[in-house]
Write a structure and sequence with these properties.
Pfam families: ODP. InterPro entries: Metallo-B-lactamas, ODP_dom, RibonucZ/Hydroxyglut_hydro. This is Beta-lactamase domain protein. By secondary structure, the chain is an alpha/beta fold. It has two domains: 234 residues, 4-Layer Sandwich (Metallo-beta-lactamase, Chain A), CATH 3.60.15; 114 residues, no CATH class. It is 36% helix and 16% strand. It contains 13 helices and 15 strands. The strands form three sheets. It has a seven-stranded mixed β-sheet. Strand 1 and strand 2 form a beta hairpin. The radius of gyration is 24 Å and the shape is elongated. The protein starts with 9 loop residues before the first strand and ends in a 12-residue tail after the last helix. The relative contact order is 0.09. Bound molecules: fe (ii) ion (2 copies). The site of one fe (ii) ion has 6 residues, from helix 2.
Length: 368
């Protein structure tokens, strides 16, 4: 499955298809089509329909599987973000008999922008579970994950396939194929640091996943790779320890202005040591194309205005990029001047710089 052609629908489990988009972009969007077959009614459920910019892709992929997108008759939405619900008005128009499942908090917002359709609040199902009117019956469980990242966010657990559709939770940027590997972790971490509000919210969601019986075989998020096997407990444990959003902001509140000003001084030194073209190109890495904000926000003139990930790691990443791109004969000068800036700002030791100096202090004098 890892090498699947992502221009096509991909069957990830029996009667469950990935019909997502943007697999080559920084922030992929995963939509899933679940077909509940039986001798009686058939339900074709689309999970997280995706943004309107992906509609053509969604039409192509669902038509490959169903023959006609209007055969979709159930929609599940994790929360109300545009990358989740953009296609909802179209889908409800093409089949007004569609039934939408979501939490009440989510629907209150989504319904403002959707035509009249049948809505079923997941809170109304006893114990957040429902059996579909198919023969044989299929069972679904809804698992609210408050503030991961929206108040009304809710996961969907398909008890037959044991696939848990997690929405933004467990999602990641810079996916490297349909299935997640160890290499996906940095992108998952960065995504959560940016979009999840607090470790406390994450812990509650992790706990709910651990309590599921039977345990899920796959975690299928709305962005990035699908997580399975040993990576499930591994990534859940790391997630439990992850400091995100407000945790980061609160713990570094007093150091934050220092980090920003150090980052800006480092940018100035880098510009000084590079030719104009290289410096324009490298600083261009931090100029987001609109599809995803960079972890370092820079203004047009290359001034750092904000740091959105774990700040020390973000500064390290910045330093690594600069060191990689400065002309080889100026690397030591750059190292020396950056180290001086960091020390002057009383910032914590930056492993990267210190490790490369091999216990020699000479570089501090190696400016010219
Ligand atoms: Fe979201
Ligand atoms: Fe999302």
């Amino acid at each position: 499955m890892q090498n699947a052609d992502l221009e096509q629908a991909v069957e990830i489990s029996n009667d469950i298809y990935w019909v997502g988009s943007g697999s080559k972009s920084f922030l992929s969007r995963n939509s899933y089509l679940r077909i509940f077959k039986g001798s009686g009614n058939v339900a074709n459920m689309l999970i997280d329909p995706g943004p309107s910019s992906d509609l053509n892709d969604l039409i192509t992929k669902t038509t490959q599987v169903l023959g006609d997108i209007s055969k979709i008759n159930m929609l599940f939405i994790n929360h109300q973000d545009p990358d989740v619900v953009g296609n909802l008005p179209y889908l409800c128009k093409i089949n007004p008999r569609n039934v939408v499942l979501a939490t009440e908090d989510t629907w209150r917002l989504v319904s403002l922008n959707s035509p009249q359709v049948t809505f079923k609040a997941v809170e109304r199902f006893k114990n957040f579970r429902v059996s579909l009117n198919t023969q044989p019956s299929h069972r679904l469980q809804f698992i609210p994950t408050p503030f991961c990242h929206f108040r009304g966010a809710c996961m969907l657990y398909d008890l037959e396939s044991r696939i848990l559709f997690t929405g933004d939770f467990m999602g990641g940027i810079a996916a490297l194929g349909l299935m997640a590997t160890e290499d996906n972790w940095p992108g998952i971490k960065a995504f959560h640091q940016l979009y999840m509000p607090s470790n406390e919210a994450i812990r509650k969601a992790v706990q709910k996943i651990r309590e599921l019986t039977p345990a899920p075989l796959m975690l299928a998020p709305q962005h990035g790779g699908i997580i399975q096997g040993e990576l499930i407990p591994e990534f859940l444990s790391r997630m439990e320890e992850l400091q995100v959003g407000l945790d980061i902001i609160s713990s570094l509140e007093d150091k934050f202005p220092m980090l920003i000003s150090a980052a800006n001084e480092i940018v100035v030194v880098f510009k000084e040591l590079c030719d104009e073209e290289t410096s324009r190109q490298v600083l261009g890495y931090f100029d987001p194309d609109g599809s995803y904000p960079a972890l370092v926000a820079m203004s047009q003139d290359g001034t750092v205005t904000d740091i959105k990930g774990e700040p020390v790691e973000v500064i390290e990443a910045l330093i690594k990029v600069f060191l990689r791109n400065v002309p080889a004969d100026r690397q030591n000068i750059l190292k020396a001047r950056m180290t001086r800036i960091l020390l002057e700002h009383n910032l914590p030791p930056f492993d990267l710089l210190l490790a490369q100096q091999e216990a020699s202090a000479d570089f501090l004098l190696d400016e010219n």
